[in-house]
Amino acid sequence: MRRVGFVFALAVIALTLCGSALAQGDYSVYFVTYYSNNDVSGAPDATVRLVNDGTSGTWLSANFYVFDDSEELTECCSCAVSPDGLLSEDVKTELTANPLSGPIRSRGVIKVVSNANGSVSSPYPTAGLHGWATHIQKDGSGFAITESPLADSNYSDYEAGALGPICAVLLQLGSGYGSCSCTQEDHDF
């Protein structure tokens, strides 16, 4: 009888630990992904999709910081996502179509900050956004589309101190260029 009680106690402890580990959630605020074959003839458009999990109970903003393959910030913007809402942004037509200078690049990096204050130049990072991105891969004479979660990244002091101010300068100097556009949530499907 003692053995049954001991096994039962171990099972309860294991379920409790697993349950609390699952209930903790993901409190990430900073994500990265890449884009490729952008603005290549015949290539479909890639998409970045974000959901607000509703944890904070408020609107959040997805701050997009788009870099080209020369590691230069070319565009930035802040797009609102309601609680339990879905935001879908096209890479070619919304996130890379208005670079500050030079041609639209074929490949680069997109960084996203989950933000509570809507400011792209001085964000208040707040957990609650989760995202996925499609990627356009060259496949023989055509293109294949893959999708993966945005990579959870470390929002270092360097990134926190650099992304917003660099974006602010980009937008101030750009005279309309360098600002990506946002589609109203749920309208890209």
Topology:
Elements: H1 2-23, E1 30-35, E2 47-52, E3 60-68, E4 73-81, E5 86-90, H2 91-95, E6 108-115, E7 129-139, E8 142-149, E9 151-152, H3 157-174
Antiparallel strand pairs: 1-6, 1-9, 2-5, 2-7, 3-4, 3-6, 7-8
Rg measurement, Å? 20 Å
SS-based class:
alpha+beta
Element order, helices and strands? HEEEEEHEEEEH
Count of distinct strands: 9
List segments where confidence is low: pLDDT < 50 over at least 5 consecutive residues: 4-24
User: What is the level-2 CATH architecture name?
Assistant: Sandwich
Supply the CATH superfamily name.
TM1070-like
Based on CA inertia axes, which overall geometry fits? globular
Number of helices: 3
The end-to-end span amounts to 60 Å
> Which CATH class applies here?
Mainly Beta
Describe the sheet with the most strands. Answer: 5 strands, antiparallel
Instruction: Write down the CATH topology.
Output: Hypothetical Protein Tm1070, Chain: A
Strand content: 25-35%
Spatial strand arrangement across the major sheet: 4-3-6-1-9
The average pLDDT is 86
Helix content: 10-25%
Provide the number of structural domains.
1
